[in-house]
Structures are given as C-alpha cells and as structure tokens.
Write a structure and sequence with these properties.
The structure is a homodimer of 347-residue chains. Chain A has 347 residues and is α+β, with helices and mostly antiparallel strands. Helix content of chain A is 33%, strand content 24%. The two termini of chain A are 29 Å apart.
Chain lengths: 347, 347
C-alpha cells in the first residue's frame, strides 16, 4: 500500500525548469485556442481573435516568504503583484486573479483580514478583479497560489523566443535592490533573535526595504512602450536575477548576448548596502531576485525612442548564439555570464 | 517584528464559505469582462460575446489525500478531474488547466513522473491542455493547486442562483460510493498498520474503490442536456455531499426544497458496504463527499425529456424559501435537511 520507488532521482538535481520540461514532454495540445503553452511568463489563449494570458504562482511560507519580517498585508500585496508582473511581461493587461490558500490553525480570521487587505489593495492599484479561489487547511504554515488572467495589447503578445541578433537589451528601473533588502532584513532578524531588546535599525534603507517588501509590477513601462509603438521582440520579468532571465531569453531565442556592467542600473542605496556587506552590487543585480523589473529586447532602430524614457536602460545587445553570453566588466574584461538564479528545489 | 494579533477568531468557527464571504466583502469589480465572481463552481468572464469559466482548487496531503492508499498516478488524475467537474457544472467545456505543486524532498523525479502520468491521462480523456504551472518546494508533504479554464456552451452558463419554485431537482449517477470507498480504505489501512502481513481485502468492492480513487467528471451529462435542449436553471457538482450542495443552491436561489430518500440513487455496492459498516447508506449520500456527480434543477416541463436518461434521477422539487429544506424518509417522515458537508478548516 506504500509508494513504490525503484529508482530515485532527486528533483534538486534537475532544477525547476528542467524538471517541468521532463515531466511535460509527453503532453499534447488538444484545443485550437491554446496558442502558447508551458515555458513563458504566462500561457496565451486565443478566442475570436482576442488573446488572453494566464499565469500562476505558488508561494510557500519558509521558502518564499518569512512572516517574521514580511507583514501579512505586504505578503498579500506582493503575492498579487508578482503574478501581475508575469502578465505585463507578456505585453498584456491583467484583468482577473484567483487567490487560493492553505493555512495552519495558527492563522486567525484577523490575520487573514490583513492578508486580504493587501490583496485588495493590489487589486485596486492595478484594476484587477478577484474572481475566485480555494481556502483549505495545511499541516504547516501558509501556502498561497494565485492565477492571474490578462488581455494582450493590440500589438500582440511578446514571448521569450523572439530576440534577434543586434537587438538592444533593455531593463526597466534598477536591479539588486530587493536582494540587498533581503540581506538587510536577515541581518536584523539575526540580531533581533540574539537580543530581542535591540530593535531593527532600518533607517536610511527605506528604498531597498520597499523593493523587497512592496514591489510593484511595471504597468507603466508596458503602457509607455505601447504608446510609443515600440515593439519588443522578447520580454520577461526579472524575478530570479538578470543572469538567469538572460539565459531564458537567449536559450529560447537561440541567440547570444553581450551586456556591460557599467550599464546595469543599480540604485545608490543598493550600492551602499552592498558596500556595507562587502559584496559587489553587480552580483546582486545579476543573481539576486525579486526586483520584478522588465527585461526586453528591441530592434536597434528604436534606440532613439527608448532613450526618451528615464525608466529604461539599454544594457547590451543580442549576438549570434555561437558568441555565447558575455558580461563586459567596468575594467573592460570579458567574462562569461553565469545563471545562478534561485532554484526553489535545491536543498 | 512579529505578527501582531490583538483579537483572535479561529477560522474553523466561520467555515470556508463564511470566511471567504467575510474576507472578500470589500472587494470591488473593475473590469466589464468579469461577469460572475466569487461564489459559484467557477467564475465567468465575457469577452466579445463568448463566455469563459475559471475554477481553482488546492489539494493538500494529509487533508485531501493520503498517499498510503492513493497512488500518485491516481492523485494526478483525480486532482485534474475534480477541477474539470467544476467547469462542467457551469454548463461549460474545459479547455485548459494549469498545474502547480509544492513538494518536500521525499518526492523523487520518478514519483513525479507517475503523478504527471495521471495528469496527462486526465488531459487526454477530457481533451484538455496543460498550459502552465509552478513547481516549488514545501516544508512538509505535497500541495497541488490547479486552475481550470473552459468555454461555456451556447445555452449560457448555469449558476447556483436560478432555481425556481416547482423546478425538479435532479442528480446524475449515484451517490455515497466515494465515501464508502474512503471508509473501506481507512479500515484496511488500520488493519495493515496493525499487522503489515495482512494484505488489504478489497475484493467485491471495486465499484466503491473506483468511486474514491478514479472519479470521473460528468461531461456526458452536460453533452446530453445540451443535445436535448434541456436548460438547467441551477447546477453544481457534488463534492461535499448532497445536503451541503442543496444548501448552496437553495440559499443562492432563495428557495426551499423537498427531496425523497427513496429517490436518492445509491449503488448496490454502496448499500452493501454501508450495511457491513452498520450505517445508513443515505447518510453517505447526504453527507459523504467526492462523488463528483451533478446536482441541477430543471423546469417541470422537461420531466418527460429527463426520464429518457438512465443516468439522471429526479429526487425532489424546489419549494418556497419559507417551506425550508426537507427530506421525506422511506417511512414517510418529514425531516429537516442538515448541511453536514465537509469543512476543510474544522479541526
């Protein structure tokens, strides 16, 4: 009556993306409405000529969030925003979400009210409707699952596979801040646990804390690109770090890339905290996650237009696949880019 | 830095549905495409005149399933079917699903292959496409979250709020089998745990085991109703037991109901197991869950048509709200119906 396991391959050996590729390789498509399936920020459905995107995320206490420093209202807000970010990254406008949770009995109705206040705030900010969900109990902690639905802009959905040689590589906002916020909070949590009389010292670090605790999805960038009629050739949101996302885009598009360290946008406060912690801020930008900025490629011809936005940085360009993935350091050295993005399945 | 909780109301006090009502009462709708939100088997979206339904479910190991007797392949199959059942219950045809999971490191790649074999089998059987999901780690056990999407039949979606006085109350298939299967498996598990040398004795109980371990969604009933142009006035699937579902329909429709014990369809094998366990089989039908049959109401004028299906039983009729909810027993006694459906939040 027990589970049989003749051979045992640890899931951590494969990692999330290879695991999903492996598990779903025999799945076939049965419906004409399924335009794009597994493997992008969201799936794309088509019905009567209009395209709908669907994306889903699962957030597990102790894996994705720590309630000792992320208040429940922030968790509610963030878990919605993280999903909407995937919808925007398809060149779409989010319209609906479902919100499901499994929770242990340590959560009271009052605690859940706070969580839902955050969900409601995100729904209001982004004009999204909560249309359903499921609520059940868990044996340990809180698990949240959200599915977001959106409508693709008239210019069509933008996947990960359309980057062409010579396209410019762009990112919105700045990178590495959320990761520096995480390191700061973990430092303060350790101090607090050792001596609860010492209150956390977060002054002067409001920016990186906000990046960690109340991230926003870049609706403004998508609106602006559509207004300017700039057609991105590929796009995704940066949830696992710039390196990891560049790997996804270049692999799916079968191209290479060259980016320049000096062009990677990093906030002064992020740089300051990196200095305090004696690490290179570019490492946070490349390998830290959770910034929820957009990474996208555009044709070279749109360079003039793109420079009109102060919120967008051109950090490099797309090359031939055989040229590989390169980072040109501030000192002019050429280094191979490595994908060290977060693997939620690694122990 | 810790969660603050001035007042503490246990979520079990409210129950799942009251909790969701409470938490979502301040949510507003922002999009014209949101036709029907929280509170039915699925939400309904409308775009360019075509209606899409969306439903989501979360399944937690130790709460919803027990892997000591439910093999992973069956779990994969069942978790998809359970969601599709919600789509059919809206008078819709499922087209896509997303499948997310959080898993502890006791699951190997080989174990997940079995799980996905079951998911794939359900997708093939019902012509549904797997379009996405999320895979991450959990601190204990397996948690599955599925969102199903479907297209509403031309006759329009059928909610829970349209039952009218004098409508006939119908159910498909038979009820109580899955619950009897559950009691059987728990009995055998107990015997096995006490003495692993004794192999489970399931002979002659294949039917109720199948009801528990490989339930099917009633696509055939929806197809037939549409072919016969029988327009149900309300519908839902029976996942928590007939009583509980009748409460939902009569509450949402603001009506009462009278059903007859002798008309509730119960399989002979279900009756036999109930007798072995010295319980009334009608209790399993009323309060046991997981049969995934359809409960629906139709206008009286369709009585002749509905009798042509051997798969559908008329079990009673809709009354005025003030007449309450009644069960007429085999001996002719009138008893109030009580909703003792499963509360996943009750400890």
């Amino acid at each position: 009556m027990a589970e049989e396991q003749q051979q045992r391959t640890d899931v951590g050996e494969l990692g999330e993306f290879a695991l999903i590729d492996h598990l779903t390789k025999n799945f076939e498509t049965h419906n004409a409405s399924t335009l794009l399936g597994i493997g992008d920020d969201a799936a794309v459905l088509e019905s009567l000529g209009s395209q709908t995107v669907v994306s889903t995320d699962m957030l597990v206490e102790g894996v994705h969030f720590d309630l000792t420093y992320l208040p429940l209202k922030h968790l509610g807000y963030k878990s919605v925003v993280v999903n909407l970010s995937d919808i925007f990254a398809m060149n779409a406008e989010p319209t609906q979400i479902t919100f499901s949770m499994a929770l242990s009995n340590r959560f009271s109705v009052e605690a859940l009210e706070e969580l839902y206040d955050g969900v409601n705030l995100a729904c209001q900010e982004y004009g999204v409707d909560l249309i359903g969900g499921d609520t059940t109990s868990s044996q340990s902690g809180l698990i949240i699952s959200i599915t977001a639905i959106g409508e693709v802009h008239e210019s069509g959905y933008v996947g990960r596979d359309g980057a062409q040689e010579n396209d410019l590589i762009c990112v919105s906002g700045d990178l590495g801040g959320a990761y520096m916020g995480l390191l700061l909070m973990e430092r303060e949590k350790k101090i607090f646990n050792e001596n609860p009389a010492i209150q956390p010292d977060l002054e002067g670090n409001e920016y990186i804390m906000k990046r960690l605790m109340k991230p926003e999805a870049r609706k403004d960038i998508i609106t602006w690109l559509n207004e300017q009629k700039i057609q991105a050739t590929s796009m995704m949101d940066i949830s696992d770090g710039l390196s990891s996302e560049l790997f996804h885009i270049t692999t799916k598009s079968n191209v290479g890339c060259t980016i320049y360290e000096e062009k990677i946008p990093i906030h002064l406060d992020t740089k300051q905290m990196a200095m305090d912690l004696q690490m290179a801020s570019v490492t946070a930008a490349l390998n830290g996650g959770e910034d929820y900025e957009l990474l996208f490629t555009i044709p070279q011809g749109d360079y003039e237009k793109i420079t009109m936005s102060e919120e967008i940085s051109v950090i490099g360009h797309i090359t031939k696949a055989e040229d590989g993935r390169k980072l040109i350091s501030n000192s002019g050295n050429e280094m191979p880019l490595e994908a060290q993005g977060w693997n939620p399945l690694k122990k």
